[in-house]
From TrEMBL:
Membrane spanning residue stretches: 12-32, 44-66, 95-123, 135-156
One Pfam family linked to the record: 7TM_GPCR_Srj
Name the UniProt record assigns to this protein: Serpentine receptor class gamma
Origin superkingdom: Eukaryota
Organism: Caenorhabditis latens
Signal peptide range in chain numbering: none
Keywords: Membrane, Transmembrane, Transmembrane helix
Length: 160
């Protein structure tokens, strides 16, 4: 019995995308039905994390990057390049390059989301005013960091 690995790699993002749309709404519901004194502003950081997870899952399904048979990802030193042989993005158009670059930029953007999460936890330990009275400033800075990660990666690496 042989297993078609290309089929497995093609359907894994769909399976995990479906799981993300099942688990994340339950996660958000549990966060917002809990007493506000237990989570405080941390619930909004978790909501930010869950929303990014849903966006990333949509991007994985809509803009797939298969790493077996349908395309090859090659790297040399500090760069990588893709050969796409099937799917929605086979044609070389500016729109397809834009979407593929944005999809790859989401990988870097995930680090911005994790960074904002860990910085928030560190600021809570320091009893910072950014986590209590000025939380709106903190969340705007966090979202700004996310946009900077995405736009710099997309603008710089998507142009080559």
């Amino acid at each position: 019995m042989t297993v078609d690995l290309a089929l497995v790699y093609k359907h894994i993002p769909k399976v995990f995308g479906t799981l993300a749309f099942i688990v994340n709404p339950i996660f958000v519901y549990l966060i917002f039905t809990e007493k506000s004194t237990r989570f405080g502003n941390y619930r909004y950081v978790l909501l930010y994390f869950a929303m990014f997870n849903l966006v990333y899952s949509i991007a994985n399904v809509v803009i797939p990057i298969y790493t077996f048979l349908s395309q090859d990802i090659h790297s040399y030193r500090y760069c990588f390049y893709l050969f796409i042989s099937d799917g929605l993005f086979v044609e070389s158009t500016d729109w397809h390059l834009f979407l593929l670059s944005l999809r790859c930029a989401l990988v870097a953007s995930s680090y911005a989301v994790l960074l904002s999460h860990f910085i928030y936890r560190y600021l809570v330990v320091l009893d910072s005013t950014l986590t209590k009275g000025n939380f709106h400033i903190y969340i705007l800075i966090s979202f700004g960091i996310f946009l900077v990660y995405t736009s710099v990666w997309h603008a710089y690496f998507g142009t080559f």
